[in-house]
Amino acid sequence: MICVREYFPDTFSTAVRQKSRWIIGIVFQGFKTHKWTSSLTLNYFLWRDRKGAISNFVSFLAMLVMIQLLLLLAYESLWPDAWHFLSIFSGSAWLMTLLWLNFGLMVNRIVQRVIFVTGYYGLTQGLLSVLRLFWGNLINFMANWRALKQVLQHGDPRRVAWDKTTHDFPSVTGDTRSLRPLGQILLENQVITEEQLDTALRNRVEGLRLGGSMLMQGLISAEQLAQALAEQNGVAWESIDAWQIPSSLIAEMPASVALHYAVLPLRLENDELIVGSEDGIDPVSLAALTRKVGRKVRYVIVLRGQIVTGLRHWYARRRGHDPRAMLYNAVQHQWLTEQQAGEIWRQYVPHQFLFAEILTTLGHINRSAINVLLLRHERSSLPLGKFFGHRRRYQPGNVGSRPDNSTRITSFDAITITQSRFKHRTGCATGVRK
């Protein structure tokens, strides 16, 4: 199924026009094209589309009756010596049972609406969705009346002119302009030449986006990549040491949230939580992050690999070997000097990548599916890779379809520190295996 997300008109007249156009197309013109069939299943779905011609009128009248009954109830309860009217619901037991069942289903529908609206837009909008039921009934009633009037005037729904309304589509960047390409920013900042950009585009490291690929090829540094990403997203950038983050600040963000959004809490500024990310965060995700941590959140771009290594250190469910501890142990045994260990660490960190980035860039799974699986992973105790394999969305052997790609992408964590250490012991130049 392909869906298009756009804003619904925010004025009464344009909302009625938009809704009436849908009713004409789905109910009246659709009936001309798709007649009732002998299939009960197909007829059920056709009825779901076409019942609006009746239910929009009935729902509005039912809303008026409900408002009247609520006013009468308030009058009888609050006004001294009020007149008491006979209940319109007195009757057989089956009628009362049917009314209570209908009431329960309606309450369930309202609760579901509040829950899902709150998840996207916050508690205030979630509660307002209850009031919008009445507003929606009014729009549906007026739109239904307008659609019926147009069809009767033209005699045939296919003759009704297309009542065009302006479409306004949301943008995850906060405006309608697209982000400037990363390569263009690097060119403008004279970090690379056009020839280098063309070469990087032609020989991109499989499984990595352009910035990470250029970093792997030695065309740019981690600082230059962070600066370009910060300029692209209109935020600041900085270098961090994840091991120096206070544990009390780490406690501000649950592990499921940090791993889902690939961010680390860095500091508090005027009750605002500053988080670090290796890539831009869209406004929708930033708003969701704000709600989940319970305070306003702002993000900065940090150097490549610093978030990945920080997440492993603070939030990983199952920790393997600690590369930083390996370096510390080498210094303690005088296999390396502190300067050599620091240089190895600075070269090791930028070559650590997010698992999800590799999967999506290779095309084994799209970003939407990744988000769905991450939501489900919050309730699982399995490591992410095993969880993906268990869900049959991802097979571990798919990453790096060729041996060189698999080694190039997945083996940094296990190999780089060890090899760099022995290079220092033998007097060779430091470096990261490519």
From TrEMBL:
Domain Type II secretion system protein GspE N-terminal intervals: 234-320
UniProt superkingdom: Bacteria
Protein's name according to its UniProt entry: Bacteriophage N4 adsorption protein B
Domain Glycosyltransferase 2-like, residue spans: 3-74
Keywords per UniProt: Membrane, Transmembrane, Transmembrane helix
Transmembrane portions of the chain: 57-76, 82-102, 114-135
A UniProt-annotated Pfam family: MshEN
Annotated InterPro entries: Glyco_trans_2-like, T2SS_E_N_sf, T2SS_GspE_N
